[in-house]
Design a protein that fits this description.
- The chain is an alpha/beta fold and about 425 residues long.
- The N terminus is likely disordered.
- The chain has 14 helices and 17 strands.
Length: about 425
């Protein structure tokens, strides 16, 4: 073999070695980018606005306080790229493709809601891309065999379980005389999973389910359903789906004079806009929440319980969120859970010192940590199993944590005041 040919082969082999060496590219990594088809308009805009603000707040903390995200032994900035999916499934899929193939993001975040989360999951799977689920609570997501979906929000089947346990404990007349329960939920993937979990829990606790019905997405009049519900004379009504239908259900219950000992609505009642829109008729209305301002998770508490701590304190977080959204809005759980998903991703990347998606997914499965949002742990499918919920109640125009007792910021008003 002559010298010219040998030299040529060495050049080719060197080039191949360069192309196959991930450490060469990793050493030149200038930033880590997360991509998000956010729901900033359409049906889920209220929750989507909170989620984007929450992610921006967490990214701000990572860069300004944590010093960036550590990869290959050095800190680099964390960047956030998002587009408005308009709460539409077809936009979720196309935007995820764009974020992965054109914007070259390293990790993806799901949009708010189970339906939109499910719509994007096959795209993440197609590209082997970690897909952080901050707002898709349906248990169904984790029965599809997806490998890259990682949940921070808790599963829907547990949303009203704590509420029913609370009623059982605080109302002594519940046992031995079961209270009559009405279930009225939106006909959506998420709400059905909540209803199924609530029905199972109610039966377990000995409640009498006197009414069970779903209503269509986008409903504009619940009067026929509520007339039948009123005839069943329930002591407790639990239900809802998302902001618009939950607000409608509350308003039309008031219009029809349907007074109960307790009314708890998922998703809607925990949003600041709920009380602003309904005023006095929101008084006493409750909702299960993944986080509320006033919870007491702290670095000291993490150390006492053996958890790794990451992130800002609660008060520091609120300031970061308000800076992100440019107003004095108080974040709700839609923001907090999105922020916690960012913190989980940072911990996983730093644990393995790599942005390799498969390795990061494996590291996420091994994490157990605490932040201002609370505890975090997932099972082998990616479903959240470590986070506990709280119940909030509207009292004189403010949301108060009333359950569990260890987290409460106010005593529960029970029975709730009648509509006037």
């Amino acid at each position: 073999m002559n010298k010219t040919i040998m030299t040529g082969l060495l050049i080719i082999m060197g080039a191949i070695g360069f192309l196959e060496a991930p450490t060469v590219f990793a050493a030149k990594l200038e930033k880590v980018v997360i991509g998000h088809p956010a729901a900033l308009s359409g049906q889920y805009a209220k929750a989507g606005e909170q989620a984007v603000g929450g992610i921006q707040a967490a990214v701000d903390w990572v860069n300004s306080v944590h010093g960036g995200i550590k990869v290959n032994g050095k800190k680099v900035p964390l960047d956030y790229k998002y587009y408005d999916c308009e709460s539409r499934k077809e936009s979720v899929t196309s935007l995820l493709e764009r974020l992965i193939t054109s914007d070259k993001v390293h990790f993806t975040f799901a949009p708010y809601s189970p339906g939109l989360t499910l719509a994007g999951a096959p795209i993440a799977e197609k590209y082997g891309m970690v897909y952080m689920d901050h707002g898709g609570a349906s248990d169904k997501i984790f029965k599809q065999g997806f490998e890259y979906v990682v949940q921070t929000i808790g599963p829907g089947s547990r949303y009203h379980a704590g509420t029913l346990e609370m009623i059982k404990k605080i109302d002594p007349t519940t046992n031995p005389h079961p209270k009559k329960i009405a279930l009225a939920y939106e006909d959506s993937e998420f709400a059905r999973s909540v209803m199924d979990g609530a029905e199972e829990k109610a039966k377990e606790l000995g409640f009498d389910i006197v009414f069970k019905r779903t209503y269509p997405k986008g409903v504009t009049d619940l009067t026929p359903l509520l007339s039948d519900l009123k005839a069943a004379a329930p002591d407790v009504v639990i239900g809802g789906g998302h902001f618009q239908d939950g607000q409608l259900l509350n308003k039309q219950m008031a219009d029809l004079g349907i007074n109960t000992r307790l009314l708890s609505l998922i998703a809607a009642a925990t949003l600041p806009a709920f009380g602003e829109a309904l005023g006095d008729i929101a008084e006493g209305v409750m909702g299960p929440s993944h986080w509320e301002y006033g919870v007491t998770f702290s670095k000291a508490g993490a150390e006492k319980t053996g958890y790794t701590w990451i992130g800002p304190s609660q008060d520091e977080y609120v300031k970061l969120f308000q800076k992100a959204v440019g107003s004095d809005m108080i974040p709700d759980y839609h923001a907090a859970e999105a922020s916690a998903a960012v913190l989980a991703l940072v911990l996983a990347v730093e644990k393995i010192d790599s942005i390799d998606s498969d390795k990061v997914r494996e590291a996420l499965g091994e994490l157990k940590f605490m932040s201002f949002y609370g505890t975090w742990d997932i099972d082998k499918t990616g479903k959240q199993i470590g986070h506990e919920m709280v119940d909030v109640q509207w009292q004189k125009g403010e949301r108060k944590i009333v359950w569990p007792e260890s987290a409460k910021t106010a005593d529960i008003i029970y029975p709730k005041p009648d509509f006037k």
